[in-house]
Amino acid sequence: MRPGSFGSGVAVVAMLAAGAALGASREANRADPIVGEETAVLTDAPNVPPPIHRNHATRVVVHLEVKEVEGQLADGVRYVFWTFGGRVPGKFIRIREGDEVEFHLDNHPDNKNPHNIDLHAVNGPGGGAAASLTAPGHSSVFSFKALNPGLFVYHCATAPVAMHVGNGMYGMILVEPKEGLSKVDHEYYLMQSDFYTQGKNGEKGLQPFSMEKVIDEKPEYIVFNGAVGSTTGDKALTAKVGDTVRLFVGDGGPNVVSSFHAIGQIFDTVYPEGAMSAPTHNVQTTTVPAGGAAIAEFRMSVPGTFILVDHSLERAFNRGALAQLKVTGPEDKLVYSGKQFDLVYQPEGAGARAATGERQVVLAPAARSKEERIKLGAEVFANNCQACHQQDGQGVPDAFPPLAGSDYLNGDKIRAIKTVTGGLEQPLTVNGKGFNGVMPAWTLSDEDIANVLTFVYSKWDNSGQEVTPQEVKLHRVTAGAKETKE
Amino acid sequence: MTRSRALKVMQAFAAVAALALGAAAAGPGGWPGSSLYNLESRWTDQDGGSVALDAFAGAPVVVAMGYTTCRDICPAIVADMMWVERHLPPGATSRVRFAFFSFDSEADTPERLKLYAESHGLDPRRWTLLRADDSAARELAAALDVPWRPNDRNGFDHAAVLTLLDGKGEIAFQQRGTQASSDELLGRLKGLIAKGE
Amino acid sequence: MGAAAVFVVAILAVASPAAAAAGAERGGLVTIPPGLYTPFQRVKAANSGETEAQAPEAIAAFAMDRAPVTNAEYLGFVTAHPEWRKSWTKTLFADGRYLGRWPADLDFGHAEAGDRPVTDVSWFAARAYCKTRGLDLPTTAQWEYALADAGRDEARVRARSLEWFSRPNGAGPGAIGGPVNGYGVGNLIGLVWEWTEDFNAYAITAESRDPNGNDSAAVCGGAAAGIADASDYPAFMRASMRASLKANYTADMLGFRCAGGAP
């Protein structure tokens, strides 16, 4: 034995001992006898299969069907997704450590392409990929023993991997530690990923995959659960004041790492990278690597809409990485007064946006009537405004001002044009309430801005006036880098 | 490793389907639909004799593909087959056959095959080394699921696959990759022998 | 260098057969001139530390079907060769989906299917069809060489491939026709995948995230595969598709065409 090796040996033993706090050792899990057999319950996001109450290992049979399906990526934007189970992200799988999983990967005969699966929960070549390359209309079977507890990503690993993953082929498998997880009121499944369309963000129609953009790592969309707006509005996650919430957060990539954050809610406990052995507490933002995961647990203290974002903000507000958790129940003024002080997270705003050099010029069809303008404006609103100002135009108290019946908006059309084109960085009062957020400068075309403002004016008891592209052109804030070329 | 009921049912279904199809489609030899003996290619053995695949019918046979000038994986494949041969149960040594099929239709003449068999001490009572044209070799490799291709060093890149065929020419087991001891293949072979094959 | 000279000759030789070939809508063999082809998956000696790309392969002149074999053509084949009818075929030669779109042994269904590529055929079946015409399936190198089209329109071919992957399957492959490439070959992409004679030659690298790796004892120790151009996604897709197949497999979007030595 060389000098020093004894010391490092002790360190390794100590590390292993600490790691064994939750869950058993690999050796114990390998030897854990299998009792019985069950078929795995699989769920689509944001739902999670029920907790496991078994006190023994069993054989779990998983049937996962690969389907290539056309679906919606954003309003008016269609995409052919390659999926594990029909939707993006793929089905959530829940097993217990020590379980023996018999995995059936079924490649639907209507599919065009071969696929396989790499589960990060597997110890073995390719994580199963080497055993599961499956032609359309065929099915592969392989088995593995769950040796390590944790939350793991799975994904297709057929070449070109970035294309299969870029088209939506990822999901998560939870290997519960044998002690189980603590009881909570809600468990949700949220998975971030990036998409590479040939058309720019917002461009309508069926969008083909862009090989160039995925290679350059320049996504058009970064979303939660497979689409812009998948988890907002009436599809938001829900909870009540006093409830405990556990989020199983994953990042499918293929390229972008997430800075996962809940606006206005501190994570009481985070299992970083989905590992069960070393939870951390009182966390603001946790990194979720591409091909990685995290578990975040927290108790809701006050009601409101809590916005879940990738805190790399351009992604949240311009590319789609934004979800909502709506909490109902009584206020607790001690925890949050709601008036005295602005606790809201502030986007970095116009300067940062302009500095990226990324323009978001969307070629919009020209409206021929006010009705068409309103119709086209609705799409612009959904893609750009709704995330903050909300589907019902009510905004979010203390964070994003209401557009519905807004005195600020209805009072001055030209001010509205200047606000949208130039952004806003000073405090303002809307309908008697103070706001101190930042409105970014929108690099939209004159036509789009005219349409979206006309739409907003047509809704929610607003003044009903029309805004024309000529007016936008005339009053557009043209200072510096904010100018938009058409 | 045990298999689940689901898998067993699937396999049983596949077997029934294969039998049904086989019965409907039994050719001149009457082999089951998935039998390798449905291949009609003709091969030449190390003594220059013409051999159809179903010449091996009636008893288990351990089959592999390679070529005699292969210096890396093929010796290991042959060594694996010889390991199985050494561990045959008494009484089975005269029935079980070992067949080595060559990819190399050019270089592997019957003379070359015979020399190879002799230099490796392969007992001609159990061992047959065979060659055929490219097309037949490709067809057999496809049926045995042995990926291969000529490489730029006058040889072939190929997978190491040992296949156990039962008396009717159906695949009873495949070992992919070479091993120090081919226990699982030997176990399946003993199972066939115990069933009277 | 000699290789470069051959390559130039190959390009020059293309012009006339291509011009002669364009015109007929489908069917018939097109002569492909000789030339050099760099395989997508290059081969290198194990443990050699070699990193440079594999030398291009010389491709001799050969003939290839202008278009994939159609349902109508395949009906003629199974009529003359009953052993390849769907109810007769053995599982060794074709799996349970063989000719899955055909309602019966001698019926491919709707009339318009007649000039669409036959699909759900196995490698054994496709090969048997070509043998009856005195032909073979094209090798992977021949097929890819024909698609490479001496470098003409490379970007457009890639874009059309990606577009095809991005389109839902719907009711199966469309009709044969449309433009042919510089060699006079059409429909290599955008309708169906196609069998090649040595489809499984590269299956050794099926798990290809480690393109330079040597994949375990299942592979001949003599070689590992590398990738000529990791940004050529359509080439990866074709390689993965071939690697996922076994010779008796059939698939809904998998057809074939025949090839042979130059006439």
Automatic annotation (TrEMBL), chain A:
UniProt binding sites for Cu cation: 115, 120, 155-156, 164, 169, 311
Protein EC: 1.7.2.1
Required cofactor(s): Cu(+); Cu(2+)
Gene3D superfamilies: Cupredoxins - blue copper proteins, Cytochrome c-like domain
This protein's name: Copper-containing nitrite reductase
PANTHER family attached to this UniProt entry: ALCOHOL DEHYDROGENASE CYTOCHROME C SUBUNIT, BLL4482 PROTEIN-RELATED
Alphabetized GO MF terms: copper ion binding; electron transfer activity; heme binding; nitrite reductase (NO-forming) activity
Cofactor note: Binds 1 Cu(+) ion.
Source organism per UniProt: Roseiarcus fermentans
Phylogenetic classification of the source organism: Bacteria, Pseudomonadati, Pseudomonadota, Alphaproteobacteria, Hyphomicrobiales
Assembly: Homotrimer.
Enzyme class: oxidoreductase
NCBIfam families referenced in this protein's UniProt entry, alphabetically: Cu_nitrite_red
TrEMBL record, chain B:
Family annotation (InterPro entries): SCO1/SenC, Thioredoxin-like_sf
Signal sequence segment: 1-25
Disulfide bond sites: 70-74
Keyword annotations of the record: Copper, Disulfide bond, Metal-binding, Signal
Gene Ontology MF term list: metal ion binding
Pfam families according to UniProt: SCO1-SenC
UniProt-annotated binding residues for Cu cation: 70, 74, 158
UniProt family annotation: Belongs to the SCO1/2 family.
Protein name in UniProt: Protein SCO1/2
Lineage: Bacteria, Pseudomonadati, Pseudomonadota, Alphaproteobacteria, Hyphomicrobiales
From TrEMBL, chain C:
Domain Sulfatase-modifying factor enzyme-like: residue ranges: 29-259
InterPro entries xrefs: CTDL_fold, Sulfatase_Mod_Factor_Kinase, SUMF_dom, SUMF_sf
SUPFAM superfamilies: C-type lectin-like (SSF56436)
Organism superkingdom: Bacteria
Cleavable signal peptide: 1-20
Keyword terms, alphabetized: Signal
Gene3D superfamilies assigned: paralog of FGE (formylglycine-generating enzyme)
MF terms (GO), sorted A to Z: formylglycine-generating oxidase activity
Protein's UniProt keywords contain Transcription: no
Protein name, entry field: Formylglycine-generating enzyme required for sulfatase activity
Organism of provenance: Roseiarcus fermentans
